[in-house]
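Much of what follows relies on a compact textual record of a protein's fold. With that in mind, consider the following protein and its fold in token form.
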Amino acid sequence: MSIRRRFLITFLSLVFFGVMAISTFSILFVRNHLLQTSRDSLDQQARYLATLVAAQTDSVAVRDVLNDYVRFTNHQVELLDADLVPYMRAGALEDTTAPTFPGIAALREAPTADREYVRIPASEAAIRGTLARVRYIIYAGILLALLATAGASWILADRLTLPIRDLAQAARRITEGDATELPRSDRRDEIGALTRDVAAMAQRLQEDIADLKRLNQAQEDFIAALSHEMRNPIFSARGYLEMAIDDDGLKGQGELDRAGLRELLQKSHRNLLRIHTLFADMLQLVRLEFGQEPVQLGATPLEPVLRDLEETFLPLAQERGLQLILHHSGESIQGQKELVKVTLSNLLSNAIRHTENGEVRLEVTRHNGRVRLTVSDTGVGIEAEHLERIFEKFYRIDKARSREEGGTGLGLALVEQCMKSLGSRMEVASVPGQGSRFWFELPAG
């Protein structure tokens, strides 16, 4: 059963029982009022008639008075002795089967033993007729009121439940996957609040679905890129190892054969190291993304980090004929040493790999009360269309060159995640052919 019909039936039931209760009370009230009014009227008439009867001198005159009264009022009238036994009567009751109620009055002030009375008994038949007419009027009014109420209730229920029906239709559309048309309401009552809450929930659901689709696509892209990145070093290492253990490759015992075997093993080792680095970067990235890497921010001196970086990257820079300039500083930052070191290591590694000649520089400066760390180079630079995507997983500008130089494609993605864990943001500026500059800021320690 629809909520509109339930509302209509409930409302009509309440109105029906309410009207019936009121009508029953009204009928009882009218009946009692009529009875009391009739008694009071008969008592007044009895007193007036007793005055007239008492003024008469003989029985003929008394009967004439009684007959005149009966003719004008159509009531029965009786004279009673001291024992309340009728000794004279005029007129007759209209309905002898109906209960009666008398109006009675004494003829004169006399001792009780000698007192006579005038009694005007009246039947309830007349009152019953009046009550029947009143009941008919009330019941007819009830019927008309119920019909009018039913029509008004139907219209009211339709108007009241219209927003709920619209909301139900919108919910069905959302359930079917269509959240393009969200429910709207300008009402300021509970239905309006519910409509706005459902619209907000649907909007969030739509955003969540879009996020899930993006995450699913990103996961598929990640798996595809990972499998591609893994395939080359695995196949290369497998080929080198198969060549090394091949019988034909071990027939010679000269120095040349041993040198060739060493070369094959070194190439296999490099490919295995590349796989190891790829998994290490991927594991650290996943742990940071899912909050599994404990991050404890505190005062961290930069000088030990800078010395470690210099020891690691100075030989690599010199091997490529580059100048590595590190600005040693006594600054301290609010951060975590390992995350800062991972960030700077990836930035320096990328700068050295993508710089043919010139220099790579790491500077530590103060900027608006914060410590800014900047890695710059004089390398090939980055085209503007690539700047928004360089922090994506496995995104490479020059894919072939990056793989040849040992890049995993996860370095800048790991840098971006480190920045989120440190509560900072990586900024980048680059001019193609002139070099790139990466920087971030942390609170001073």
